[in-house]
Amino acid sequence: MPRHELFYPKTANNKVNRYAPLAKYDATTIHTIINSVPVLHVSFLSPSDPPLPVILPYIGRLGSFTYPSAGPDEAQDLYLHGYVSSRLFRPSPNGSINLCVAATIVDGLVLALTPYNHTYNYRSAILHGTATLVSDPDEKLYAMRLITEGVMPGRWEGSRVPPKKAELDATGILKMTIESASAKDEETKERVWTGVVPTWMTLGEPVEAGGNRVQIVPEYVKEAVGERNERARREAEEWRGVGF
Fold first, then answer.
1. Would you state the pLDDT for residue 187?
2. Cβ-count burial 49-86 (b if 16+ within 10 Å, e if not)
């Protein structure tokens, strides 16, 4: 059967107004951006009086516990990892919390003729949804593995697993059900430029920790570093012509 790609419906929360033609609402674009950044910025209202907006950095990853093989073009939930006593992981009176999650990838520095026209080539994604604490032990382990593999593919099996009970008890996992989302591919609009500096994040050579007893860096680490650097370079260079 043919697969039908998921598109998030436009709502007052996620509709892109400025440079609307650059907006993307397909799941593949949005999910790929979210899963490509090392840090997600999570916004929520604090329980203070009056409520104040709070933005905190978290490690997270998109996935589906009920359908683990789901691709980026299919429905997924966002799992966030944190310490159980942090404010975002404290149980709320109604058991859930409304979140806004942002991710940005800078692909190039656009150096224009005048300061006014300088900008970035970037891709960004915004998610809106409701999050609840994960209590099911199997789903919690699934999320921890998902997030760990997002940090470094192969690292879950390459580390001491399964986690000890004390580690599980100290770790909080939030599951965010996505209610609306959008992405934006920003480019230079004035057509006045002198060039673009492709920009990407590079992982360095692995450095052993103090007390390390394994002298050879695991192949999965070296492969993951090389593949991620190459993918980041390729994507940035593909975007260097945007806006010309």
1. 55
2. eeeeeeeeebbbbbbebeeeebebbbebbbbbbbeeee
